[in-house]
Every structure is written in C-alpha cells, then in structure tokens.
C-alpha cells in the first residue's frame, strides 16, 4: 500500500494527524482497549486505542479506533489484519462520528448480503451462517415478523430488508404502550424470505440492538 499526499493538503504532519494514521475497526463487544492494542501492536507503534461506547449504558458498540505513529503502519494493519475486523482508514475527527459509524455499518451490510456469509461480530466469537450449511427446521413462508426492543423507522427498515431481492412490503406497527418495535415483512418468494431470515435474525440494527426475525403464516403451502 502506498499513500500519496496531495500538494495542496498542507504540511505532512497535518495530513498524518488527521487522515492517515487512524484506523477504524469492528471488534467483539468483550474487547477492552488493552485487547485491541494487543491485537494490533504487531503492525507498528500505537499512539492510542479507544473503544466506542454507548453514551447511556457505557457498553461497547463493537467498534474501535487504533492510532499509529506512521501512515505506513496504519496501511499495514489494514492490509494484514484479520478480515473480520473490517479495518478502514478513519474519517478525520471533524466529521460526525455517528454519521461515519452509520455509513460504515451500512456499507458492510450491503457487502455481506451480496456474499455467501454474514458474520455477527457482536459476540466475543464471530457467529457465521453459511447458505450451504443452513438446515430449515421450521414452517416457512413468504412473510416475516421482525421484533426489536427499539422502535423502527419505516424507511430505514425497508432499506435494510430491501437488500434481499423480492421485497413486496414492509409494514411497521407501533405500540403506544411500549417503546419496542414490530414490523411485518413480505417477499415475493419463500426463498427470499428464508434468505432474509437467516441473514438478519440476530443482526444488530442499529448497533447494539438485535433483531428477532421469525416466519409468519401467509396461507401458502410451506412444503414448496
């Protein structure tokens, strides 16, 4: 990896400080800053590590920053670290961190759903579903129920499930007595619903909030 510097970008040290030495990674929620440092110290001299936490609960969001002394060390970490860390160069500090985190999750979600596996790294050990190893033990249909402890936003949930081809409708229902979320999702085929069920059940959306996705009877012959 070779990182070029624009002639108009100012002093070399300014560029290093703001753009080229800080990486952003996805980590198990059990990681401490010491664990993060231990995993990434082999790639170079680390200036600091930080874990991103929920402002209210102070629990880890499963994300962290690692700041190196040299851009070459950050580049080496991105190239050589385990792919499960999803390491990328961090945005400059003057950009909203929440916006950056949301973009990061959205991009990774799209990449995962286009591949064969979706890796859930919210737990200390990544849990992987593979299409060719899935065993359907329950009655299936084209319709899914989605439950969350946080309320849903119609547009966001539609965009999430629309990543799986064949989405027909997404109906978000609100309970005036609780703050939980509930929605009904329907696809054009049972195959799409099965794929969405095994990809998105247990997925954290938004980060820190796990979705529960189950099949709903839709009157069709599940044996198909």
TrEMBL record:
Keywords: RNA-binding
Start and end residues of each RRM domain: 21-95
Superkingdom of the organism of origin: Eukaryota
InterPro entries reported in the protein's UniProt record: Nucleotide-bd_a/b_plait_sf, RBD_domain_sf, RBM45_RRM2, RBM45_RRM3, RRM_dom, SLIRP/GR-RBP-like
Matches recorded under SUPFAM superfamilies: RNA-binding domain, RBD
Record Pfam families: RRM_1
SMART domains given in the database record: RRM
Annotated PROSITE patterns: RRM (PS50102)
RNA-binding in keyword set: yes
A single GO molecular function term of this UniProt record: RNA binding
Protein name: RBM45 protein
Annotated source species: Geococcyx californianus
Lineage, top ranks: Eukaryota, Metazoa, Chordata, Craniata, Vertebrata
